Amino acid sequence: MVIARAGLLIALLLLWQLAALRGLPEYVLTPLQIIQSLGEALGSAELYEHIRASLTRSLPGFAIGTILGAILGLAAGVARWFDRLLTPAVFLTYPVPKIVMLPIFMIWFGIGDLSKILIIALACFYPVFINAYYGVRQTRTILVWSALNMGATQGQVFRRVVVPSASPMIFAGMRVALALSFIVMFAAEMINARSGLGHLIRVAENSLRFDLMYVSLATIAILGYAGDRLVRYGQSRLLAWREPAA
Amino acid sequence: MNRVLPFLFVGAVLVAWEAAARSGLWSPLLFPSLGRIGGELASFLSKPESLGEAWVSLARALGGFALAAAVGVLLGIVMGRSRFVAALLDPLFSGTYAVPKLALFPIFIFVFGIGSLSKVALVFLECLYPIVIMTYAGARDVHEKLLWSARNMGASRAAILRRVVIPATAPFIFAGFRVAVPVAMIVVVITEMVSSADGLGYQVIYALSSLKTDRMLAIVVVIAVLGYALDKAVVLLRDRLIYWEKLDTYYV
């Protein structure tokens, strides 16, 4: 069992590397070549510039979307009139690919970083809003009754009962939002940007620099993985009181 | 009052839009009036060739989704019922889950060409994850008592799979489909915006570069309606097939 865990991954990488002996097409680099070109790129300043450009778009977008989503989702969960006002519109537009708004945002907010940050925020808003909303709705009534019975005010019930019981759901929404923020960032940069990892992969593609393509790919993969780990770490620290989920 | 509230927000947005369009503060390029967007929408819907563009996008999304559904459900059920396969595949899926698969697109273009195939392959890959993960979670947690009872009553392995495991997993499978369908639309539109000569995503970019904002917004409306309709179709199918369990998550 233990060998099987990492086994398949290692076996696949090995097979990939060995396949190179039989000759691979030019656009398929071997794992060793990818590691080598990644090492070279990490030694130059250019890659860091692109990473910085990408993160200055995705992180503020993620932050804005997540904070707004959590606040409005909590509000819609507790206040019925607000629920009636906002939730139908959110659910109606939820299955719509938000990236189609990018051209409109480009016209409204310019082709710079602002339109990209806002489109990322828009994409991140939905999963967090929906999860916060359902997190509140799933709060067990017996907890609320007990708190009220023991003399808690409305504000206390919200702060001490509703928010903690919704927070695991909010974190689950944040994980989805983080993954989305990277996807939308990459898409926006591929469509229109002068810097960033999505731009780098386009440049590499157009100049047939396959090594750069894989460098960009590996970097975004590592960033996505690290970001996800970070959210999960934050969740385990902040929600340590909660029994671990399966 | 409660019945009016849901329409209040949408109505307010539309009124604000029309007001912005008529105020003359911004160029009609920024805020084309609702009438002009509606006109473009009508002309889009009346032309067979633009309906063809919509069909191209829809076929790519559905093709990739159908492949992912077939492979994903199979993998998820096998993972859920076999510890060995789960130990083999689970690290692979959970390890690469947070990685944006979209970054593979330029490589897919070289491998599968710039036609539909590279887009369908990417849709397949992106849709596979939610379907596998949800199906796996469902197949793993099939009630032990149901399995024991079936075995006790002499059901064969195939009968248990068909009559117990699959029905018990079905709600999870559809939860996965529900996540995957919007993803399919997103990936199709993005890939068509990045590199294509047809499809709705390309039409959006084309309208943008010819500065026809009203036409662009009309196509955005078409994409939005398609995304919404696909989601509704999954819910309808789910309610028909899984009649014994009501959908109580998400939306009304």
Summary, kept brief:
Chain A is mainly alpha-helical and 246 residues long. Chain A has helices at 2-19, 31-43, 45-78, 80-93, 102-109, 113-137, 141-149, 154-191, 197-206, 210-238.
| Percent helix of chain B | over 70%
Rounded to the nearest angstrom, the radius of gyration of chain A is 22 Å
CATH architecture descriptor name of the largest domain in chain B: Orthogonal Bundle
Counting structural domains of chain B, the number is 2
Query: From N to C, what is the helix and strand string of chain A?
Result: HHHHHHHHHH
Kindly state the number of beta strands of chain A. 0
The CATH architecture name of chain A reads Orthogonal Bundle
N-to-C terminal Cα separation of chain A, in Å?
Answer: 19 Å
Low-confidence stretches of chain A: none
Largest sheet of chain A: none
Q: Percent range for helical residues of chain A?
A: over 70%
Tell me about the biggest sheet of chain B?
A: none
Number of helices of chain A: 10
Q: How much is the average pLDDT of chain B?
A: 88
Question: How does this model look, in words?
Answer:
The complex is a heterodimer of chains A (246) and B (252). Chain A has 246 residues and is an all-alpha fold. Chain A has a single domain, classed as MetI-like (MetI-like fold, Orthogonal Bundle). Chain A is 80% helix and 0% strand. Chain A is built from ten helices and no strands. Chain A has helices at residues 2-19, 31-43, 45-78, 80-93, 102-109, 113-137, 141-149, 154-191, 197-206, 210-238. In chain A, α3 packs antiparallel against α8 (154-191) and α7 crosses α8 (154-191). The longest helix of chain A has 38 residues, at 154-191. The mean pLDDT of chain A is 87. Chain B has helices at residues 5-23, 34-46, 48-81, 83-96, 105-112, 116-140, 144-152, 157-194, 200-209, 213-241. Chain B is elongated and about 75 Å long. In chain B, 79% of the residues lie in helices and 0% in strands. Chain B is mainly α. The longest helix of chain B is centred in the C-terminal third of the chain and has 38 residues, at 157-194. The chains are: A mainly alpha (246), B mainly alpha (252). The interface between A and B is large, with 61 and 59 residues.
